[in-house]
Amino acid sequence: MIPDPLLDALHRARHVVVFSGAGVSAESGIPTFRDSLTGLWERFDAASLATPEAFRADPALVWGWYEWRRMKVLQAQPNPAHMAIAELARHVPHLTLVTQNVDDLHERAGSTDVIHLHGSLHQPRCFNCGKSPDTSRTMPDEPEGGRRLEPPRCAACSGQLRPGVVWFGESLPTEALNTAFAAAQSCDLLISVGTSGMVYPAAEVPGLAWHAGAVVVHVNPQPQTDRSEREFALAGPAGEQLPLLIRQVFGQATPG
Ligand code: BJW
Ligand code: ZN
Fold it and tell me: What architecture is the 1-30+77-120+172-256 domain classified under in CATH?
């Protein structure tokens, strides 16, 4: 049951921000960041692999882990949550999509101008000089198998390539972060979907919107219990809750 004040707020909203996290891709078969890792990587702790120190210590281990994840994304398809967000953009006057995800499933669902706060699995760069390679040559689309994989070398300086993601202790892309913060502070309604809200500074985004007066809704099967005024929780999987919300406010789906 979706509360009427939330339905009214979405109906009236001129600028909606969608802030997404790993949970939005869970129904596409992509493990969330804080799930216990399965299969090949069950012995490893994701948080300790997502650091520059880990890459320096064992580049083949870290590169192999990211290649395994990139392959999973290439084999995955956008799910109803990604599709609902792309559809929502066709119903509201202005929508800003800010994601912490490093996959491209929002884009493949039809969303445009996606703000990626934590970079992308699909845009490696040199760990030494920072140059990005021609990805079509260096990034094979077929799984290579095996746990460890030596990173390819940079054509400019022979340094090792690293995944184009933001690791712990690294700065987020300045323009992306500034745009996300500005959108949060000027929107009427923010939908936070599939995120634990544990990783900063990205986790500040919903709070910024709320403090600026926006209605905030959290979509998560495990909602937090304490709520403020103008704050709602839709408890359930994003692929179920987001299509329901859009259907209740705007009627039947609009074909993309
Ligand atoms: C569903 C669902 C379904 C399931 N439907 N939902 C202030 C205070 C404390 C610490 C810090 C601070 N400021 C900075 C820090 C340090 C650090 C940090 O935040 N640490 C915390 C862990 C404590 N931050 C940084 O280091 C950042 N850099 C920085 O601040 O630079 C300046 C600086 C440097 C040095 C010192 C101080 C400042 C960089 C953060 C980069 C994060 N990068 C990662 C990895 C990216 C690459 C990769 O993918 O490997 O980004 S970490 C990881 O977490 C990934 C995610 O984008 C991010 C957020 O995770 P997310 O999306 O929320 O996923 P989960 O798994 O946590 O949650 C999934 C949710 O989905 C759950 O709630 C489920 O219930 C739900 N769910 N199924 C809907 N079907
Ligand atoms: Zn280089």
Answer: 3-Layer(aba) Sandwich (3.40)
Catalytic sites, residue numbers: 118
User: What is the location of CATH 3.40.50.1220 in the chain?
Assistant: 1-30+77-120+172-256
Q: What is the pLDDT of residues 176-209, one digit of tens each?
A: 999 999 999 999 999 999 999 999 999 999 999 9
Residue 93 phi/psi, 5° resolution?
-60, -40
Pocket test for ligand 1, best of 32, 63, 106, 122 (most atoms within 8 A of CB): 32
Single pTM value for the model: 0.95
Q: What's the CATH superfamily of 31-75+125-162? A: SIR2/SIRT2 'Small Domain' (3.30.1600.10)
pLDDT tens-digit map of 137-186 = 455 555 555 578 999 999 999 999 999 999 999 999 999 999 999 999 99
